[in-house]
Amino acid sequence: MGIISVENTDRLYWLGRYTERVYSTIKIFESRFDTMIDVDDLEYKAFCKSQDIPNVYESKEDFSRKYCFSLEDENSIFSNLMRAYDNAIVLREEIGSDTLSYIQLAVYAMNQAAISKAPLIGLQKVTDNLVAFWGMADDDIDESQIRNMIKVGKLVERIDLYARLKEPPEKIRREARRLTNRIDKSTMRYSPKTMAYVNYLVQLDDVPYDALIDSVEKLVGDSM
Amino acid sequence: MVTYTDIFSKKERVEDMELYAGAGDVNEQLARYGVKFGIYKNNEFKEQLFPFDVIPRVIDSKEFDYLEKGLKQRVVALNHFIDDIYGDKRIVKDGVVPEEFIYAGSGYLPQCEGIKPPKGIYSHISGIDLVQGKDGNWYILEDNLRIPSGASYPMIARKISRRSAPDLFTGKHIEDNRNYADLLRRTMDHVNVGGHTVILTPGRYNAAYFEHSYLAEKTGAHLVSGSELIVENDHLYFIDYSGRKEKVGAVYRRISDEYLDPMNFNRESVIGIPHIFDIYRKGNVALINAPGNGVADDKGIYYFVPKMISYYLGEEPILSNAPTYLPYYEEDMKYVMEHFDDLVLKDVAEAGGYGVVFGSKMTMEEKARFKEMLQKEPRRFIAQEVIDFLDIDIMEKGQLLPRKADLRAFVLMADEPMVWKSGLTRFSRNPDSFIVNSSQGGGFKDTWVLSQ
Amino acid sequence: MKTLKFGYHMKLTFSGAVNNHRFSLKCIPHDTDMQRIEKMSVSVYPDHITSENTDSYGNITLFGYTNEFHNSFGFDVTGIARTGLSEYESSHEIHRVGLYRYQTPITRPGTSILEYYKQLKLSDLRDAKEKALHIMDGLNGSFKYGQGYTSMETTAEEAFAGGTGVCQDYAHIMLSLCRMDKIPCRYVTGMMMGEGRSHAWVEVWHDKKWLGFDPTNKKIVGDEYIKISNGRDYADCLVNQGIFTGNVTQNQEINVIVEEETDE
């Protein structure tokens, strides 16, 4: 593998995390939005709580707008997409212009969705591009470490999100297994002790979600 | 002299070109690849797309041969000049260039005195701006020997255009310009003193960040920021994520001399690499382009370039300057005062289309004030005849419109000078403006050099 | 001719620990036509990775860095200098020293120096040497010596307008005046017998020679002086330049000893 700096391994990891966060939160938002159509306002409040984000919204309409599209709301999907973009834009040499272009396209799609009369359809274009980005990353990036660094980010984010949503243990175990397989291949600096602890936690019948979130966040990088 | 009208059939010109432009294909594709440049507006960083016009500038092979010879000659002479100025200064001794044009300008860096860069090359990548007059003659407008930018735009535009409108390219015998990365790689490898080759960027908030990252990808050089490089024991190293130190032998730096090294230049610089200049002085790393080149590309020195060609090479200059007057010389001052309305005046310290004024566009009062300033600081300005530009067509909303345009040709110096068979054609979107700089809202075209 | 024993000691004390310290030092006298340096010993502390280089003006530069945390930084340079080997340093032809004819941001004159320059009537004098003597004599009466009136950053114009300053200011004002007359001249940092601190003076180019003038003491530079570095102005001759990480205040102590060696 060519030379790569600490900063850029970090960016690859976060590129994986933010793309996953955007993709998954769009999916979650879509299903919650569907419920909100004929149920009451309270649904979005529960959602904020599960995501550990402050409820700064006035109504369900306000929530739908801001949570998806406001760049002033640092927890919005768009803000997270811009974080993915900020990481991707400095990784052209590592991931290649063609792979990078799908993040750029996702940003354009998000801008379009924000002004569209059918934002859910618009958001679908965002996820289309993210899926294409991952496909392209898999197919086009020669260096396996680079691919694996992005994947590690993606899997860490997924476990984190599933734990926040208190998803069934079996679903989380599957992602933890995939992460265990990937993380050594990525050659990233991580804490094997924390990895072992994550694997221990997910095997428990009653998964302690908070402890799991705490551990998986500490797995890679400076916080280890 | 050819234009696109000579190589496209009438149908192609009207229908195909319109289709090609109307579909917005290329600009959409450029957006997809993030082909942008950054600007600061009200202190906020914004990325803007660089508008692309589909109608290429076409230069036939004979004409380009002539340009190529002239450009090589000019760049070789400029390289001699820089070498001489930081060395023996023969050209000053022999009275060809007055010393104040060297020492009183901001481009001369005394820190570079006595330094011989690897392989004796100072201007590895030169961007020479030319215009074509209505008479068909080409004139040099400006030499850019510090960090000329822009090659990435026609490179990627060509790639996209060939995909969007393959029929337009069929049977036209156009030189492929996507080899720029190979030329650049060869140029960097030639001076590399041993180790990796890196492209040093000030960061993603630089106007030309797209170009930095695109050239890194295409040449296979590593894109780095100053904080990733370190000087230790007289050598430059890249610090790998595992903590390993990898030696660096050549730095294509896209940051200006001033910010390159806080220990030797601007002490406030946080994007530079402390002591990189000290090891460059020892010959332990190549800096591309060499620091101090500014002594050869300011608007005052421009006047002397044809004289340099005769002085160093004993040849007649192949390409001409735009007719230029130096108010520093009494005779020229007299001419400038008498023909003020016919001239364009340029402040030698300014760049990017700033500090340029047309005599004819000033009010009486402005003229009087300007003339007074000129008498006081004659070295600060040059005056040029206004060239009657050959307009070239652009396509706007299905209409062909004539616009002013220039051509930035790229000359790369490896074991021999090489001229890239293309260039960046920039045009002014405003019909009344002569200023084509992207920072002032201009657009660009591809430049087709015919191979036969 | 003299044999001078010298010691140049510099110590920076920081109010807290700093690290990531990069430095460039121009503290080592070099051989010239006028002086020969012998038995020199140089130490920089704490232990650093250090390299040596010669800059564009011919000065010896030590450069390096230390990563470790430290509360002080300094150097000790000691040795023997044989001085007065010549009355001047030989130089190049005029076209090679052109850069010393132009003002720098520090020497650029303002109204007070411009006024003074007119009074000096240098055009009545024959050559650079006579002019330099005249400037030195004049300056000695028109500018007072005094510490605490100016700082390291004070320009020639600011110092002259204020009327009082130290050797650095004398040198800058003299450079400014010489350059107004297109005389090539340079700033010199060095040591002088019995000073206790570093000294600064001026060299003026005359007939392919650099001649030393000390406007502070109104003296022609001879065997009581040891030169360390020269440049266009003070900024080219910084004895210590550094950048480091740490939000601290710093205090600099400089101790210079130059004595004639007698026991030979």
Task: Write up this protein.
The complex is a heterotrimer of chains A (224), B (452) and C (264). By secondary structure, chain A is mostly helical. Chain A has helices at 6-38, 42-51, 60-69, 77-89, 92-95, 97-115, 119-140, 144-164, 169-185, 192-203, 209-217. The two termini of chain A are 25 Å apart. With 452 residues, chain B is α+β, with helices and mostly antiparallel strands. Chain B has two domains: 4-317 and 388-449, no CATH class; 323-385, 2-Layer Sandwich (Dna Ligase, domain 1). Chain B is built from 16 helices and 22 strands. Chain C folds into two domains: 2-84 and 240-260, Immunoglobulin-like; 89-237, Roll (C8orf32 fold). In chain C, helix 3 (156-162) crosses helix 4. Chain C starts with a strand and ends with a strand. The model of chain C has no long low-confidence stretch (mean pLDDT 94). Chains in contact: A-B, B-C.
Q: From N to C, what is the helix and strand string of chain A?
A: HHHHHHHHHHH
The gyration radius over C-alpha positions of chain B equals 22 Å
Major sheet size, sense and barrel closure of chain B? 8 strands, mixed
Shape of chain A: globular
- List the uncertain runs of chain B: none
Structural class, from helix and strand content of chain A? mainly alpha
The count of helical stretches of chain B stands at: 16
Cα end-to-end separation of chain A: 25 Å
Oligomer: heterotrimer
Secondary structure: number of strands of chain A: 0
For the termini of chain B, the CA-CA separation is 14 Å
Taking all residues together, what is the mean pLDDT of chain B? 90
- Count the E strands of chain B: 22
How many domains of chain A? The number is 2
Binned, the helix content of chain B reads 25-40%
Biggest interface, and residues per chain?
B-C, 30 and 22 residues
Low-confidence segments of chain A, ≥5 residues, pLDDT <50?
Answer: none
Tell me the structural class of chain B.
alpha+beta
